[in-house]
Amino acid sequence: MTPTFGIAFGGGGARGLAHIHVIEALDELGIKPVAIAGSSIGAIMGAGMASGMTGKDINDYARSILGRRAEVASRMWRARPGTIAEAMQNGIRVSQFNVERVLKAFLPEAIPETFAELKIPLKVTATDYFGHKLAVFEDGDLHSALAASAAIPAVFRPVTRDGRLLIDGGIYNPVPFDLIENDADIIIGVDVVGAPEEADRKQPTSVDLMFGATQLMMQSIIANKLKQCRPDILVRPAVSRYRVLDFLKIDALMNETVDIKDELKRQVEKAVEARNSAAIKGRRGKQVG
User: Fold this and answer.
1) Is residue 40 a contact partner of residue 150, using CB atoms and an 8 Å limit?
2) Packing angle, helices 55-66 and 69-78, rounded to 10
3) Annotated active-site positions, please?
4) pTM given for the model
C-alpha cells in the first residue's frame, strides 16, 4: 500500500526559496501530500502547493518577479500606505511595512482568499504576541493568516485577527511538523532557518546580530522539539550564507541549494522502504501468531 505524505515548510525569510526545490522533487516523485503545515515563508510556499501550484509554477512565478529589480520595486510601490493617515497610524513607522499589503502585491492569483478553497488541507502558524502562545489557522480567511505568519518583527507590522496581535509564526514553531504528525504515514520537515556564518570575517551589524540571534533561538526550539518527536524525514538546505531579506539573490540561492532535491528523493525512498519492510514483518508476525 502506498504511504501518504505530509510536509512541514519552515520559516526563514528569503532562505525559504529553497522550499521550491522540495516541492519540485515531490512533483517529480509523483507525491501529492495529504497535509501541509507552514511557518512564515513556509506558510506562503505551503499555500502555493495547497492551491494546486506545481513546483515549476512556483519557481517560474518567483523568478519572474524576484529576478527583476524593477518588478520588485513596482510591486513594493503598490504596497505603500494608501493614505497619510494609514502611514501615521500609531505614530510614524517607516521601518515597518504593512505585510498584508505586501502579500497582496506579491502573492500569485492561484492562492485563494480562504482555506476552504485549497485543494490540500493547510495549517498556518503565527505567534500570539500578548497571548504568549502559538496560534494555528486552518479555516477562514487565508491571506490574513499568511500575513500574520510572515510578520517578521522590526520588518513588518503585526497583524490583528480575531482580536489577537499576531507576529511571525517561526518565533514559536520554526518547522511545524508536529502539527501534522498524525495526518499522514510519512512526515517531511524542511528546515531553512540557517545559522549565522562568518562572512568574510566582517563584524556583524546590529541588524545582523538581531536576525542572527533569532536564528539561534529558532534552532534551539527545533533541537528541543526533535528530542520529543521527529519527522520521518528532515532536510536542511544549505542556506546559512543568505540573509532573511535576500530575496533578490534568488538565482544564486536556488543554484546553491539544488542538491536538496536528490537528497530528499533518497530519503523518501529510504522511508518508503523502511515502512514497507516494517509492514511485511508485521504481517509475518501475525501469520506466525
Assistant:
1) yes
2) 90
3) 40, 168
4) 0.91
Kindly report, residue by residue over 150-196, the tens digit of the pLDDT. Answer: 999 988 999 999 999 999 999 999 999 999 999 999 999 999 999 99
Please answer whether residues 190 and 42 qualify as being in contact, where contact means their C-beta atoms are separated by less than 8 angstroms.
yes
Beta strands in 116-162 (DSSP E): 122-128, 133-137, 159-161
**Grid coordinates standing for 54?**
506545481
What whole-number distance in Å separates Cα of residue 265 and Cα of residue 260?
A: 9
Write the Ramachandran bin of 224: left for phi over 0, alpha for psi from -120 to 50, otherwise beta.
alpha
pLDDT one-digit tens code per residue, 114-136 = 999 999 999 999 999 999 999 99
Q: How far apart are CA 76 and CA 105, in angstroms?
A: 7
Residue showing cell 545559522: 195
Query: What DSSP letter does each residue of 82-124 carry, written as one string?
Result: SSHHHHTTTS--TT-B-HHHHHHHHS-TTS-SBGGG-SS-EEE
Cβ-based neighbour number of residue 131 at 10 Å = 12
Please give the angle made by the CA atoms of 206, 211 and 215, to the nearest 5 degrees: 140
Q: Does residue 264 sit in helix, strand or coil? A: helix
In angstroms, what is the C-alpha Rg of the chain? 19
Angle at 65 between CA 53 and CA 122, to 5 degrees: 30
Report the run of H or E that residue 185 belongs to, with start and end.
Answer: none
